[in-house]
């Protein structure tokens, strides 16, 4: 029985590790924009955050809970866009592991051009994070500036997933 339990624990540990990212894609704004357009057959939730942003870190468990519930649906996808510096890539990887982030994480290496790409996502976005943008069929359907509660996130997703 002890051996069986040990094997089970080992299996669960490997399964949990395989669900997490072990590397982070590094993209420029144009590449992120192409990726958003590529996923035009589903509801795409794009969350901009950073490891040093307290409200970002606070809301991430809600995002993960909902992502874990919906990730197998063909018409749903979540992307977490880290605005941490490229030099902090290892910190982002550790954060992914420690916080058990299961959604796709991208490191946006385009800080110097923020004033160019931020208004292309949303004219009213002042650059503060967290920010979450919802796309359906490649079109923006909702912009949320600031921290999202689990209830607001679920409501926005449910209203647009139909």
UniProtKB/TrEMBL annotation:
It holds the Pfam family AhpC-TSA. Residues 5-162 form the Thioredoxin domain. Gene3D superfamilies: Glutaredoxin (3.40.30.10). Transmembrane segments: none annotated. PROSITE patterns: THIOREDOXIN_1, THIOREDOXIN_2. The keyword Cytoplasm does not apply. Keywords: Redox-active center, Signal. Residues 1-18 form the signal peptide. It comes from the Bacteria. GO terms for molecular function: antioxidant activity; oxidoreductase activity. The keyword Signal applies. PANTHER family: THIOL:DISULFIDE INTERCHANGE PROTEIN DSBE, THIOREDOXIN-LIKE PROTEIN HI_1115. This is TlpA family protein disulfide reductase. It comes from Chryseobacterium elymi.
């Amino acid at each position: 029985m002890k051996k069986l339990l040990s094997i089970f624990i080992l299996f669960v540990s490997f399964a949990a590790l395989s669900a997490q990212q072990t590397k982070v894609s590094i993209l420029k704004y144009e590449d992120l924009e192409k990726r958003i357009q590529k996923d035009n057959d589903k509801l795409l939730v794009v969350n901009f955050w950073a490891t040093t942003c307290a409200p970002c870190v606070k809301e991430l468990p809600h995002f993960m809970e909902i992502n874990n519930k919906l990730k197998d649906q063909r018409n749903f996808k979540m992307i977490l866009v880290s605005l941490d510096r490229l030099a902090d890539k290892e910190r982002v990887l550790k954060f992914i592991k420690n916080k058990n982030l299961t959604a796709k994480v991208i490191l946006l290496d385009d800080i110097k051009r923020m004033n160019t790409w931020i208004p292309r996502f949303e004219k009213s976005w002042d650059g503060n994070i967290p920010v979450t943008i919802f796309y359906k069929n490649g079109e923006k359907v909702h912009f949320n500036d600031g921290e999202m509660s689990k209830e607001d996130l679920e409501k926005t997703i449910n209203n647009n997933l139909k």
